[in-house]
Amino acid sequence: MKNPTCPRPGAALLFVALVALLPRLDAAEGTVLARPGVRPLAADLPVETAVLTEAPHVPPRITRQHAAKVIVNLEVREVVKRLADGVEYTFWTYGGNVPGSFIRVREGDFVEFHLNNHPTSKVPHNIDLHAVTGPGGGAASSFTAPGHSSQFSFTALNPGLYVYHCATAPVPMHIANGMYGLILVDPKDGMPPVDREYYVMQGEIYTAGRHGEGGLQNFDPMKAEDERPPYVVLNGSVGALVGDMALQAKVGETVRLYFGVGGPNLTSSFHVIGEIFDTVYVEGGVLPAQRHVQTTMVPAGGSTVVEFKVEVPGTYILVDHSLSRAFNKGALGMLKVTGAGNALTYSGKEIDEVYIGQASDAGFAASKREAELMAQKEAAIADNPRIAGFTKEIQLERGRKVFLTSCFACHMANGEGLPAVFPPLAGSDFLKADKDRAIKSVIKGLSGPITVNGKPYNNMMPPHDFTDDQVADVLTFAMNSWGNDFGAVSVSDVKRVRAENK
Amino acid sequence: MARCFIPVGWQQAGHLALVGFALLATLATTRAGPATQAGMTAIPAGTYRPLIRSQDEPAEISVAPFWLDIRPVTNAEYLAFVQAHPRWRRSQVSPLFADSGYLSDWAGDLELGPSAPVGAPVVRVSWFAARAYARAIDKRLPTIAEWERAAAAGFTQSEGAKEPGFPAQVLAWFTQPTPQPLPAAGSGRPNYFGARDLLTLVWEWVDDFNTAMVTGESRGDSGLDRNLFCGAGAAGIRDPSDFAGFMRAGFRSSVRASYSVPNLGFRCAQSP
Ligand SMILES: [Cu+2]
C-alpha cells in the first residue's frame, strides 16, 4: 500500500541538492496525502473530533454509515514516568502515555491531523501513520519543533489496524522512547460487535542500567544498535497490565484485542496463556483469516486483531512467547475473567505461578513482603545513629544535585539569595522555624509577603514537580549547608505534608 | 504569517574555508590555554565533518579560527539589548521576525520575572532577533561548521567522541526534562576550548541553521535512506550512531527563522 522507501541514489542526491539550494519553502506543509479524486469534497462532510483513548481502552465503535471529516488533536509530550518499581524513564509520548492514544476512524473518512509538540519538549517530533497512503505517511508534513503545531490531512483509504510512530532521526531512539500507537480504520460496515475491546502494544526499552537498576534511566544507543533491550514491555511499563490494572472480562464474553508492536526492533510471538484465539485478523488486515490459533507473529511496526470467547474464570496471561522477554524483561500482562466456573477445565491459577514471577498476584504479595522488610530495615537504621548519620550524608549528596539544578538560580549557590528579591536559605530563620512549611513551599510554591531574618520579601516561588525523595533530599541539603544545622526532612514527612495539602 | 526568509549565511562555511585568515598563528596551531576576549574564547582552526552530505560535498570542511562566546547570552544581557532597541521588545517586535511565543517567559516588556532569572540563558528568541542582537554588538552568529567544530571537543580532549563517558553525557541531556527555570548560563564545565554549556543547557541558533538537511521524514533524507534501507555504501552518513548529531540536525531543520522555542537560545561569534 505504501511507496517503497528506496529511491535510486540519483534521486536521493537530487533531493539533497534541492534542499541545500532552496531557502526552505512551505511546500510540505498542509500537504494533502491522498489520491486525488478518491475522497469526497472535505467541505461537504460532517465534522467530528476523534475520541482518543489511553491504553488499554479503545474508543467506541463507529456506528455512522457515512464518511466524516474527523479532526485528530494529538499532543506530543516528553514525560518522566515509572518504567518498573523504583525505575523511571523519560518517555516521549503521543498523548502522555505509552503506547500513544488509540485513534479510531472509518474507512473513507477525511482526517485532519493536528500534531502539537508540547513547549517543554526537548526535541522536534513528527508522526508516520501507516494508515496514510503517501510518501512518509505524513512524517514530513508533521515535523514539529517544541512549542509548535503542524497540520496535515489524509483520507483513510484502507481499512485495517495500523501502527503509527515517530520518524524523526534517530528513529530507533524515538520509538524506543515510546513514540508509537495504533490507528484503527474501521471497514465501512464496521467490525463485528464483541463484548470487550482492549488495546495492547509491545515495545522495547534500552536503558543504560540493567533490568531493575533503580533511578532515572538514560537511553543506551549501543544496546539499541545491538538490539539488546533490558526491558520488553506491554503498554509502556513493567506491570502495566497486572494486579488492579489487569484487563477484565466475564465468563461467556467475547474479547477482542487490538495488539501492535512498536518495536523498534523485536518481533512478538503474541500468545495468551490458557486461551486459544478463535479468530485472528492476521497482520491487522480486515479478513478474519485464521481460526484456532495458539500464537501469532506480529512484526515490529505491525499489528494483529485477535478474538476469543472466555469460558473459564481465572487469570490469563498475555505474553511474548519468546519467554525470556516475558519472564525476565516484563513482556507480560493479565486478563482476569470472573463468573461461574466450568468444572471441566483447568484453573488459571497454576499458570499464574509457573510463568509470571514478580508480576503475578503472588509476586505482588512478595513485593508487599519486601516493602514490609524494607520498612523494618529503615526503622532499624533510624534507631542506630551511626548508620542514620550515614544515610543523611547520602541524602545530602543527592540533595546537592537537586539544589544545583532547581534552586540555585534563585537562591544562589551559596544560599544567600538576592537582596529584596530571593530570600536567603543560609541562616534563614524562616526555614528553621517550620519544616512542614518548607516542604509545602517546595511542593506548592510560595508567594505573598514573608519576613526572613527581619527583611521583608514579597515575590513568588514556583511549585516544583518533584518526587518525595527529591523534596526530602533538597530540603535536608538546604537545612544542613552553609552553616545551617536545622535537622533533616524524611520521605515520610513529605508524604504527610503532601496528604495534608491535597 | 509569512514564513519565508532569506537564507543568509548558508554558504558561509564554504567561504570561511576559502578566505583564509592570516592571523593568530598560535591559535591555528597549538592551544595555549583558552585565550579570552571579553567573555569569548578562541576556537583554533580545525575541521568539521558534516553528518549528512551528498557525494560531491567534501567529507571535511575547514574552519578558520574564530572567537566564540564562552556561554549563551543571558536574560540580563538580552534585556539590555531590548532596552536599547525598542523594536525588539516583546510588544513591538514585528510578527514577521518573531512568532507569538517571543520572550513569553518574561514577566513584561522590560521585566524578567521568576521564570526568566537574570543569569539564565535567554530563550524564546527568533533567529532574526538573535542575529540583530549579535549585529548590535559587532558580532555574528556562528555557522553550523563553527558551532559543531567548537562542540566536538570534550572536557579534556579536542575530540569529545573519544573521551570516555562524554558522548553518553551529551546524549543523556536529551532525555532529561528541561529544568524550570533554566539554570545560570556558564555554570557548566568548560570544554577543551574553554566554551561552556554548548551541549547540555539549551539549543542554540546558528547562522545557517536552514541548511541542515533533515526533512523530518528522516528515512527520506539522502544518505540515511540509502544506508538504513538499501544498505548502500558509506556515502551520505558520516556516522549513523552519532545520535546526538542527528538530534541537532533534526532540531535545526524543524525550526523557522521566526520561531521562538522554549529551550532555544544563542551565543555569538566573531571573526578575528
Ligand atoms: Cu519523536
Oligomer: heterodimer
> What is the CATH class name of chain B?
Alpha Beta
Percent of residues in helices of chain B comes to 25-40%
Strand order of the largest sheet of chain B: 1-2-5-8
CATH architecture annotation name of chain B = Alpha-Beta Complex
**Could you give the distance between the termini of chain B?**
38 Å
Could you explain the architecture of this structure?
The complex is a heterodimer of chains A (502) and B (272). Chain A has 502 residues and is α/β, with parallel strands linked by helices. Chain A has three domains: 305 residues, Immunoglobulin-like (Sandwich); 29 residues; 117 residues, Cytochrome Bc1 Complex, Chain D, domain 2 (Orthogonal Bundle), CATH 1.10.760. Chain A has twelve helices and 24 strands. In chain A, the strands form five sheets. In chain A, strands 1, 2, 3, 4, 6, 8 and 12 form a seven-stranded mixed sheet that branches. In chain A, strands 13-11-15-20-17-18 form a six-stranded mixed sheet. The longest helix of chain A has 23 residues. The relative contact order of chain A is 0.08. The N terminus of chain A is likely disordered. Chain B has 272 residues and is an alpha+beta fold. Chain B contains eight helices and eight strands, in the order ααβββββααααβααββ. In chain B, the strands form three sheets. Chain B has a four-stranded antiparallel sheet. Chain B has a two-stranded antiparallel ribbon with strand order 3-4. A two-stranded parallel ribbon of chain B has the order 6-7. At the A-B interface, α1, β3, α3, α7 and α8 of A face α6, α7 and α8 of B. The complex binds copper (II) ion (CU). Copper (II) ion (CU) binds next to loops of chain A.
